[in-house]
């Protein structure tokens, strides 16, 4: 029996259309999402600039704690990386695909490092967060409206007040709530710290509910406001929902590894196709 010779037509390609367009579709969605983040960040920054006439950037804390800047930067990263994935898959460009898969690998390793550090050294992570951000966040409470809304949301949702182990006394570091302040809010805390911040008769927020609590003992203040810091409360909440977070983290990790695998597969298929063209 004569040997069988496999012959391919000139239209045959080693590049899988399914892999190619799956990578393109996935990255196109994230490309749109990155553009949305950039748009929201610019809108937020422009609105803040119109209200205050200034966006303060003196230290890296001003960047990390400015929500509009964080949105623009994170959106820019997502936009650029996903654009490289889109274009690399669509144009079968191995350089863009290598850059894309490398970026995903770096993101994956950073996420794993943060997750491992948080799981093995939770109290150390708490201490680092408290020492690094508490004073700055408390100080910026009234200067940055976006940050103020975020802090109020966290304090109301998690029934906490302040950030560190000092709890509600953290607010003594804010110029408006410091006991030496000439403001009527001196020795007070934001209304979002109050156990009952809503006036029953009017249904409106009672912004004066936390006035003067810093001059009271913890037992007295605890009748009006939440006294525990938010970092510890959020850590305990995360531990209680550990399986949920683990499931979400594993799902995201699986998706990232799958996309990296598809990108490397497409890259090898393109190189194989080019070698076939070269040898033919």
TrEMBL record:
GO BP terms: namely: protein localization to plasma membrane; protein maturation; protein-containing complex assembly
GO CC term, one of those recorded: adherens junction
Q: Which residues pair up as cystines? A: 161-179
**Membrane topology value:** Multi-pass membrane protein
Location in or out of the cell: Cell junction, Adherens junction; Cell membrane; Cytoplasm; Membrane
Q: Which Pfam families match?
A: Tetraspanin
Please give the superkingdom of this protein's source.
Eukaryota
What InterPro entries does this protein's entry cite?
A: Tetraspanin/Peripherin (IPR018499), Tetraspanin_animals (IPR000301), Tetraspanin_EC2_sf (IPR008952)
Task: Kindly list the residue ranges recorded as spanning the membrane.
Answer: 21-43, 63-87, 99-121, 242-263
Which Gene Ontology molecular function entries are recorded, alphabetically?
enzyme binding
Keywords associated with the record: Cell junction, Cell membrane, Cytoplasm, Disulfide bond, Glycoprotein, Membrane, Transmembrane, Transmembrane helix
The entry's family comment says: Belongs to the tetraspanin (TM4SF) family.
From the Swiss-Prot or TrEMBL record, give the protein name: Tetraspanin
The protein's organism comes out as Polypedilum vanderplanki (Sleeping chironomid midge)
């Amino acid at each position: 029996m004569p040997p069988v010779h496999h012959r391919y037509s000139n239209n045959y390609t080693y590049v899988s259309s399914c892999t190619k367009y799956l990578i393109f579709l996935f990255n196109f969605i994230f490309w749109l999402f990155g553009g949305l983040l950039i748009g929201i960040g610019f809108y937020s920054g422009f609105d803040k600039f119109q209200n205050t006439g200034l966006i303060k950037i003196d230290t890296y804390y001003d960047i990390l704690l400015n929500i509009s800047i964080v949105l623009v930067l994170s959106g820019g990263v997502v936009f650029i990386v996903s654009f490289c994935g889109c274009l690399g898959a669509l144009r079968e460009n191995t350089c863009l695909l290598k850059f894309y898969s490398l970026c995903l690998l770096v993101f994956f390793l950073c996420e794993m490092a943060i997750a491992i550090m948080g799981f093995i050294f939770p109290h150390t992570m708490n201490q680092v967060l408290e020492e690094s951000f508490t004073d700055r966040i408390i100080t910026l409470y009234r200067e940055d409206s976006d940050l103020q809304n975020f802090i109020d949301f966290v304090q109301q949702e998690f029934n906490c007040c302040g950030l560190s182990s000092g709890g509600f006394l953290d607010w003594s570091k804010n110029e408006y709530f410091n006991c030496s302040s000439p403001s009527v809010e001196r020795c007070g805390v934001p209304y979002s710290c109050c156990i009952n911040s809503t006036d029953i008769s009017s249904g409106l927020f009672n912004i004066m509910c936390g006035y003067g609590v810093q001059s009271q003992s913890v037992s007295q203040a605890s009748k009006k406001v939440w006294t525990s810091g938010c970092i510890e409360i959020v850590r305990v909440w995360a531990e209680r929902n550990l399986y949920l977070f683990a499931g979400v983290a594993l799902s995201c990790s699986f998706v990232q590894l799958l996309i990296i695998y598809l990108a490397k597969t497409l890259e090898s298929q393109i190189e194989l196709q080019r070698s076939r063209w070269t040898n033919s």
